[in-house]
Design goal:
Number of helices: 13
CATH class of the largest domain: Alpha Beta
Order of helices and strands: HEEEHHEHEHEHEHEHHHHHH
Helix content: 40-55%
Number of domains: 2
CATH architecture of the largest domain: 3-Layer(aba) Sandwich
Radius of gyration: 21 Å
CATH topology of the largest domain: Rossmann fold
Structural class: alpha/beta
Length: 309
C-alpha cells in the first residue's frame, strides 16, 4: 500500500450530532468505509498509507474539543498519508459493547491489520482503556494510553468508586482486563497524573516489561486536552508511529509545561497549600513578565502584602 495524502474538506463545527455523523459517514465511505456498531458506537475508516492510527473517542468530546471538531486521525490522513480507523462512542461507554467486540473479531479474521507496516492505538480516559484492550487484535502495535483505567470491574478495582453508572457494565468478558490485552503490543505508553491517586493506582496495574509509565504531575484528568494545549500531542503520535518514542523523549516533551499558564497556576496552588510561598512568589514573578493572565499579578500582590504584614 503506497502512502498518499487524502484530499477532503469537513464542515463539522456548529452542527448537530446527526449532521456531524452524516459528514463522517460520507467522508469515510468515499475513502474507506463507515459502519454502525449497534446503537452506541460506530467505526469509520480512511484508507491512505502503510501507517494506521486507531483512535477511540467519544463524539461529544470530539465535537467540543478537537481541532475543527474532527476525529483525531483525520488530519494525519490529510497531511501525513496515514490510514485511520476511528472508533466512536455516542456517549461515555469504555467501548464495552458486543458489537464493538464482534467488529474487532472480524478485523482479526479478515487479517485487516496485516496490511499495515506501523500501527498506533490511541485513546484518553475510557478511550485509553479501549486502546489498550483492543490492541490485542493488532500484534506489534504501539499503544499510547492517556490516563487509562485497567478495568471498572468491582472484583479487580473495587477501590475505585467513581463511574458508578458504568461499573455495572461487564468488564470480565472479551477484551475485558486491559493490562492482560497488551501482551502482543510492541510498546505501551501509559501517561497519568500521580497526584490523582486512583488514576495512579490504575496505571500501576499495567506491569508488563514493555510498558513505559509516564508521570505527568499536576497535568490533570484530561491529558489529551493538556497535551494539545502544550502543543505536544501531535509530536507524541508521530514519534509513536515512527518507533522513536521512549521515556526520555516523552519526558522532554513534557517540559512544554513551563510555558503553560494553567500548569503554572496548579503548581502555585500546590506550593501554597504545602507552605512554600517563596517558591510561589518566584513563579508568579516569572509568569507575570511573560503572561497576560491576571492570576499571577493578583497572587503576587496578595503574597507580597502578606509577606510585609
Amino acid at each position: 500500500m503506497d502512502d498518499k495524502q487524502l484530499t477532503f474538506e469537513t464542515h463539522l463545527t456548529n452542527t448537530s450530532q446527526n449532521a456531524w455523523l452524516g459528514q463522517i459517514d460520507d467522508i469515510c465511505e468515499d475513502f474507506g468505509f463507515f459502519e454502525q456498531l449497534g446503537a452506541r458506537h460506530c467505526a469509520g475508516f480512511l484508507e491512505a498509507g502503510n501507517n494506521l492510527l486507531v483512535t477511540f473517542e467519544n463524539v461529544p468530546d470530539v465535537r467540543a474539543n478537537n481541532a475543527m471538531s474532527e476525529p483525531r486521525g483525520f488530519s494525519y490522513a490529510r497531511h501525513d498519508g496515514w490510514s485511520h480507523l476511528a472508533i466512536l462512542a455516542y456517549e461515555e461507554s469504555w467501548f464495552r459493547d458486543e458489537y464493538v467486540y464482534d467488529f474487532f473479531d472480524r478485523l482479526t479474521d479478515d487479517a485487516f491489520f496485516d496490511d499495515f507496516e506501523n500501527i498506533v492505538f490511541y485513546g484518553a480516559n475510557g478511550g485509553a482503556y479501549a486502546a489498550a484492550a483492543f490492541s490485542v487484535a493488532a500484534p506489534g502495535a504501539t499503544v499510547v494510553a492517556l490516563r487509562p483505567q485497567a478495568t471498572l470491574d468491582a472484583a479487580s478495582a473495587g477501590w475505585d468508586t467513581r463511574y458508578r453508572k458504568h461499573r455495572r457494565m461487564d468488564f470480565t468478558g472479551r477484551y475485558g482486563y486491559a493490562p492482560d490485552m497488551i501482551d502482543a503490543a510492541r510498546d505501551v505508553f501509559v501517561a497519568f497524573d500521580p497526584y490523582l491517586r486512583l488514576d495512579a493506582s490504575h496505571a500501576a496495574l499495567f506491569r508488563k516489561p514493555h510498558v513505559t509509565l509516564i508521570r505527568c504531575p499536576l497535568m490533570g484528568a484530561n491529558l489529551d486536552h493538556t497535551f494539545d494545549r502544550f502543543v505536544i500531542g501531535d509530536v507524541i503520535l508521530k514519534l509513536a508511529m515512527s518507533g522513536g518514542l521512549d521515556k526520555k523523549r516523552f519526558t522532554q516533551l513534557l517540559r512544554a509545561r513551563r510555558y503553560d499558564d494553567k500548569y503554572a497556576i496548579n503548581l502555585i496552588i500546590k506550593l501554597l497549600r504545602h507552605g512554600h510561598p517563596r517558591l510561589a512568589i518566584t513563579i508568579c514573578e516569572y509568569k507575570r513578565q511573560r503572561s497576560a493572565t491576571p492570576y499571577f499579578t493578583k497572587t503576587l500582590d496578595a503574597l507580597s502584602l502578606k509577606k510585609s504584614a
